[in-house]
Specification:
Number of helices: 2
Number of strands: 0
Structural class: mainly alpha
Number of domains: 1
Largest sheet: none
């Protein structure tokens, strides 16, 4: 995976985080889980970018 692909994936993860916040109140737990997973993957991908540099 090259840096451009990782940056595109990070942008997609940010969009997922935004959409998770927009879920209705009845899905609050799901929204927190989705956001937490997105943050974890974002951290892993950011580390990949730093390691590649």
């Amino acid at each position: 995976m090259n840096t451009h692909d990782i940056q595109r994936a990070l942008a997609a993860l940010r969009e997922i985080q935004v959409k998770a916040v927009e879920l209705p109140p009845s899905c609050e737990h799901d929204a927190h889980v989705i956001a937490a997973l997105a943050v974890t993957v974002e951290q892993i991908l950011s580390k990949e970018i730093n390691d590649a540099a």
